[in-house]
Amino acid sequence: LAALGERHPDLVVEVAHPKIIQESGAQILRCANLLVGSPSALADQATEHQLLEASHRWNHAVFVARGALWGTEDITRLDAAGGLQSLRVTMATHPDGFRLEGPLAAVPSTGRRTVLYEGPIRGLCPFAPRNSNTMAAAALAAPSLGFDGVVGVLVADLSLTDMHVVDVELSGPPGPTGRRFAVHTHRENPAEPGAVTGSATVTTFWRSLLGCCQLPS
């Protein structure tokens, strides 16, 4: 980090841990644009405010990788149009694929399929910083709901030894007939046993990186 000013990078890509963003994100923005690969860091409101302030002060952009979130642009468009009322993201994988901290690390798996957490994403990110990035991306894609309004569900499933499964469920407000617009996507991402990241996520992350080079600051 001390050499950033001398090297003059266009873009710094974080793919390590949310603590990097929380501790050094604002410092990075003094010298370069920043691609956040661990958006769970932004569940911390102080970190989010620091990045926004640094972005405006130094005229550098903050980008967020979509990771394993399918339909990011569609969620954003629907939210901007006022058509999003609820958003729920469920991630399920084998217990060996989780890197949990705090009270979540002590939750026992009581059967083949155990719900470890269900609630606002802001409450999940601090205890599952490596396993909540897809959910954090959803909260950022839908700012009207945000980290407090988007529901995250983390599931340990003993049958999912070689994949991560992400379900995204959203709905809009009731229309004139009382019916709601609704979408449910189901994504199965092959993964090595015990891996935190599925194999297809590398491709989507790379596309996010390329997108940073095409978008205006």
From TrEMBL:
Domain Aspartate/homoserine dehydrogenase NAD-binding: start-end pairs: 3-64
GO MF annotation list: aspartate dehydrogenase [NAD(P)+] activity; NADP binding
Gene3D superfamilies: NAD(P)-binding Rossmann-like Domain
Coiled-coil blocks: none
InterPro entries, per the entry: Asp/hSer_DH_NAD-bd (IPR005106), Asp_DH (IPR002811), L-Asp_DH (IPR011182), NAD(P)-bd_dom_sf (IPR036291)
SUPFAM superfamilies the record matches: Glyceraldehyde-3-phosphate dehydrogenase-like, C-terminal domain, NAD(P)-binding Rossmann-fold domains
Top-rank lineage group of the source organism: Eukaryota
Pfam families for the chain: Asp_DH_C, NAD_binding_3
All copies of domain Aspartate dehydrogenase, residue ranges: 112-202
Membrane spanning stretches: none
GO biological process: NAD+ biosynthetic process
Family: Belongs to the L-aspartate dehydrogenase family.
Protein known as: Aspartate dehydrogenase domain-containing protein
Organism classification: Eukaryota, Metazoa, Chordata, Craniata, Vertebrata
